[in-house]
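Structure tokens please, single chain.
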Amino acid sequence: MQKIKLQLFGRFCVQSDKGILTEEMISSNQMIKLLVYILIYRERILSHQNLIEVFWDNDSKNPKGALKNLVYRLRNTLRLLGEEEFISTLPEAYQWNPEITVETDYEQWEELLAELKTTVDATRKEEICVRIIEGYHGNITSRVANESWILARVMGYQSGYLDTVKTLCGLLEQQKRWAEIEVFCNQAMKVDSLDEDIHCMFLRSLYGQNKYDLANLHYEKINKHFYESMGNYYPEKLREEYQKLLAENSDMESDTEEVLKELASKEEEKGAFVCDYQVFRQIYQMETRRLKRLGIAEYIMFLTLKRKSRLYQGTAVDSVLEQGMTTLEEQLRNSLRVGDAITRYSKTQFIVMLPACTYESGIKVGKRIEKQFMSTGKKLRLELKVELQEINAYD
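Here you go.
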């Protein structure tokens, strides 16, 4: 009996003992999609109407004729795998020839996922996890991955892969195999860069290897990535994990000179201090306590960009506004004092803390920034709104 193997993960490939078909050998995306669809639903009888609804829109002219032509071309292409009739013709329908057995990588992968859920032995669990991860290859081939009829599988497989990475890292963490965890998390972050659990495990792996500087850089970088991808959102679970790691690794006693050297080891950037919103909040809260004790006034500045012709609406990236915000950040960093703190609060707004600055001085600073920005950003047709508010230290 003829048997073929279907590979969907990574790159599409169909193979028999007589030949092979790769995605590079099939120039028509529509043909690959139809073949994959027929193979996935090989137990079903697929009516012409069903296939037309899946592969052609309502505006298509003569979709039935287009379907017959596509099936004819597909049959000719499948001859590279053998002379068998791979696709059977039924009254007003097609079906994969039930006499030809199909072995698929995705079904074998699903079986491993099911086995993992019922396995108790840690050694066997680790072995299954590694096989699942190695078999994933970045999910289903991009030639079909965006089709509505396979999208649920794509998302399900991604979720299964990430859950498996977390399970494996949990097993490795019990054995303090930090370097391996780092590798697996690095791979997983390429699949989903916004999974907080993966980032938490990655940070733990770096701390486990005493890679403190790398962990700190990753934390700063990923906070910025969350903000840029999801707007005004900060990963709370990641922040808690980071603070926990800092606390756990600050228990050792050190010589005071060594501590001072470590604190000063990072070369200080020139200009104002640019930080993420969570750090800015902590600075703000410390400053309010200091002001309450001293009984003096300090000010905070809000800088908001908008289009001259229209307000920015929605969450889609506006390239002109983004360019304007990048320019404004650079100007703020270079024109403000070393002791001033800056954070990007939203897609269109910065907040600046101005310690030891009077109201009159704050107004002058705001006008200077506005003038400087408008002189360099005329072509962008953006408006800059500057507001000064007193820090309320008495709440």
